[in-house]
Amino acid sequence: MRRLFPVTDETAARDSGGGPGTAGADGADREWGLEELAAAYAYPSGSGPAGPEPWLRANMVSTLDGAAQHDGRSQPISSAADMRIFGTLRALADAVVVGAETVRQEGYRPARAREDFAALREAAGQGPAPAIAVVSASLDLDFSLPLFTSPLVPTLVLTGAAAATDRIAAAEKAGVQVVIAGDGMGVDPARAVRALADRGLYRLLTEGGPRLLGQLVAAGVLDELCLTVSPMLTAGDAQRIAGGPPVAVPRRFELTSLLEEAGFLFSRYRRT
Ligand SMILES: NC(=O)c1ccc[n+]([C@@H]2O[C@H](COP(=O)([O-])OP(=O)(O)OC[C@H]3O[C@@H](n4cnc5c(N)ncnc54)[C@H](OP(=O)(O)O)[C@@H]3O)[C@@H](O)[C@H]2O)c1
To answer: Pseudo-torsion of CA 107, 129, 211, 105, nearest 10°?
Structure first.
């Protein structure tokens, strides 16, 4: 892993013929420890309970030709380094917001407590693992799965006020915290972010999928995008990372960080 942007003294020295980077230099191609990754992806300081402003970042992977999945999953277009960053981003989050279709297709399980991040989470006043917050209108979810019955911290389901009462009852029976964040069937993204913050969940991470991310973009609630560009081409008609109706005016983001490993680019953009 090496840092390509922002350009540091170490990166510049290496680019101007300084030879292989010195140990510990950002620009050197070497394996980064989880602590370093956690520091590189730290949430802005105002986005904790002391802020208290929520911060919503997305973590997505895309091929060179824009596919957000292959054979219905993101794993084939990911890499070991991508999964390390995926795990790090989870470890920094209070809650992981995810669309119901991704939960169904990727077979979501509860977030694990990671020994490597235990001290960091404790210092940040966080529980042992992030809560998973599933966004669903239909509540067509298998509430007998471990994601709902045996998470370390209770799983949340965000839904609309018109959701079927028997499905709400089934969710609650499994131990799920049902959060109403919309007047009809659907969830209003801004209301969802506020409802999570009201529960002390400020450092938010969404793992998509594309239909959910498109709505978060359209509603203007996405603060940051951590985008992995996978050096692969898949052709076909896979979804892009964000779907749904286009926004009237493109949302502008600025690059804050770019890492590289084995041809995979790990970018970090925040809204301007
Ligand atoms: N490349 C990546 O980084 C990445 C990341 C994640 C997922 N993926 C891939 O993306 C695919 C799934 O993504 P997707 O776009 O089809 O689905 P998705 O966004 O994961 O989930 C869509 C579902 O979420 C619920 N939902 C979304 N917006 C809602 C709202 N405003 N109110 C209430 N419920 C709402 C609905 O659930 P109900 O149907 O239950 O009502 C909807 O059917 C999978 O193939 C997965 O592998 C790729």
So the answer is: 0
Same domain, 130 and 185: yes
pLDDT in tens, 222-243: 999 999 999 999 999 999 999 9
Q: How far is the CA of 135 from the centre of ligand 1 (A)?
A: 8
> CA–CA separation, 221 vs 176, rounded Å?
25
pLDDT value of position 37: 96
Q: What is the mean pLDDT of residues 73-87?
A: 97
Q: Are residues 13 and 86 in the same domain?
A: no
Structural domain of 81: 34-271
Closest CA to 89 of 26, 39, 148, 28: 39
Ligand 1 site-directed mutation target among 63, 102, 159, most atoms within 8 Å of CB? 102
Ligand 1 probe mutation, 71, 135, 207, most atoms within 8 A of CB:
135
pLDDT exceeds cutoff 50 at 211: yes
Name the domain count of the chain: 2
77 CA distance to ligand 1 middle (Å): 18
pTM comes to 0.94
